[in-house]
Amino acid sequence: MWLPGIAMLVAGTLFVLPGTEGHAAGTEGHAAVTTGADAEAVAAAAGATTPFATVEAETGTRAGGATLRSLTPGAAAPTAASLETEASGYSLVELKATGASVTISNNTGKSANTLVVRASIPDAAAGGGITASLNLYVNGVYRQAISLSSKQAWNYRDATTNPDDPNAGGSPYRFYNEFPVWVTGAPIAAGSTIKLQKDAANTAAVYDIDSVDLESVGAALAQPANSLSVVTYGADPTFVKDSTVAIQNTVNAAKTQGKSVWIPSGKYLTNSLTATALNFTGVKVQGAGMWYTTIYRKVPLPTPAGWRSQILVGSGTTLTDVQIDTNAIWRVVGGTGGSDYGINASGAGGWLVDRIWTRHIDANWLSGTNGIIQNSRTADTYGDGFNVNNGNASNPDKLGKNITVRNNFARNTGDDSFATYSDAGASGTNPQVTGTTIINNTAIAPWWANGIRVAGGQNIVVSNNLVNSVSSNSALDIGVFGDTGNPLASLTVTGNVLNGGGGWNGTRHGVRISSPSSTSLFPTAYSNVTMTDNILNGALRAGLYVDKTRVNLTLANNTINRPAKQGIWIPAGVTGTGTFAGNTVTNLFPGQVATQNDSAATFKITG
Fold first, then answer.
1. What does 82-119 look like in DSSP terms, one character per residue?
2. pLDDT value of position 197
3. Distance between CA atoms of residues 220 and 587, nearest Å
4. Per the CB 3.0–4.6 Å rule, which of 179, 248, 347, 576 could disulfide with 551?
5. E strands along 393-532, which residues?
6. How far apart are CA 525 and CA 486, in angstroms?
């Protein structure tokens, strides 16, 4: 059966080998593709280039009763969050019995002096989490115990008391956390084996291991010339004394003297109840490296109403080489759970954020004009990983104009890993977000929402990104931001690798394209989308779903591989046009079709 613009094949090769997270070790963010040269070129260019390599636990050798848990391709889509839906590659290794282990190899070609173990251990019976160790062996010899915790995991959706309460009728999700580890003793040499084993001293009832990052971290950076050290102004790198005021005083002095701010190696406590958050506007702030300099927000829990712990980045700011971490336990910005933005960037004069690592934050909130965030990481968030927006306001410092998000890595985010949204406001007068570029980023296993979301805007570009293993929603969601969202005037999606999607939050698909509803401020607006040279692989329902009601879609040279349902589905009630050319749907399950157009009278496909 041949359909407009679709070459229907009955054989092919899966793009992503089970458990490889879309890339081989040592090439983080690059999808493994074994079909035609064009698809291979797309896959090779997709995702962030990072200094670490990820090894999936399910690719390792299991022993001592360790078991593999995974979703079955083509099976019924999940209806609730699970350890499998939140795992990268939808697979994990479970250690229950004493002596159970999983062994992986360091095939990166270089030594590793740090690891990041992504794992889950059970919650406490009354909530609040537990702490337990897991033993690490190198080449079969015990090296050290790794401390794991579930204190910032296991939230409960729709709990009647708070999201951390397992006994209030909620549904569990957010199972995993990441645990950075400095390797004790000599770095783990290339070719060595790395074993994680549950021994008698490891007291959690079960350990669910998803993946391990291996990285060779260089020496700490040195203080740059013409800079002021926060330690000189009273900041404490030993994590004993609160450093909030000292850091802000250093920033203020540097601005007056025309110098930069230096934050040496250390962990800096910021928990004072000051009237305003740290504000880095107008200066350069540099740490010794994201593995060396940490600004840690140990906020009161429950957090006083309205108290903010975000870091403000404004016009003329450069922020580099720091880690920002918190003790937050659930998502309410400025509320009781301690969650707040990692950075809140705005300003008409441009800003630059480079090489930062945010953990356990709400979101990185990005607005203003000509801002750039690059080469950064975020993990275990309660909100979006990186969110480009217009501040929900008509404000010249929050236009959301020409913001670039490039070469960043997001994993286990509590909302869209990467998002851009344009809100017109209740009056419909907020300006349109324009010129957002989301390029060469990697989104792995968001526990809520989408890998990438585009909600309104003009001249938006989403290019060469990798999305893998979305738990609740879609790998890519395209449309508008609720009833006050500005229309999607123009979007180009090209060269992306989008694995999975179609999760448990209602009926979701690999990619969804939608438009304003009848109750919107813009009820007759069309979403205008061009998708070229993308790979959509392994959706848990349809590969691409065109939602109601008004969409103009150009679809060229895309490959849709192994969707559980239709390759492309246009349900009844869609109006618009589809210009399709050179697309391929392959590896369909029995009884499924490449394209199902239930709106043939109103959504015309040509090509």
1. -TTTTSGGGEEEEE-STT-EEEEE--SSS-BSEEEEEE
2. 99
3. 49
4. 576
5. 404-406, 409-411, 418-421, 437-439, 442-444, 452-455, 460-463, 466-468, 476-479, 491-494, 497-499, 511-513, 527-532
6. 9
Rounded Cα gap, residues 302 and 436, in angstroms: 36
Of 330, 298, 299, nearest in space to 151 by CA: 330
The burial class, CB within 10 Å (0-12 / 13-18 / 19+), for 218 is exposed
CB–CB of 388/458 below 8 Å?
no
Measured on CA atoms in the order 208, 210, 213, 214, is the torsion positive or negative?
positive
Low pLDDT (below 70) residues in the chain: 1-38, 273-275, 334-335
Inter-residue contact 443 to 83 (CB < 8 Å): no
Gap between the Cα atoms of 237 and 247, Å rounded: 11
Token representation of residue 417 = 């890993």
Angle at 538 between CA 537 and CA 543, to 5 degrees: 75
Q: Give the span between the Cα atoms of 270 and 309, in whole angstroms.
A: 8
The pLDDT assigned to 564 comes to 97
pLDDT in the model for residue 288: 99
Q: Is the pTM of this model over 0.90?
A: yes
Provide the 3-class DSSP secondary structure of residue 381: coil
Q: Are 164 and 170 in contact (CB under 8 A)?
A: no
Specify the pLDDT at position 27. 30
Write the CB contacts of 400 (distance below 8 Å, at least 6 apart in sequence): 367, 368, 388, 389, 390, 391, 420, 422, 431, 433, 434, 436, 457
Which pLDDT belongs to residue 15? 28
pLDDT of residue 442: 98
The pLDDT score that the predictor gives to residue 272 is: 73
Between CA 124 and CA 104 the distance in angstroms is 29
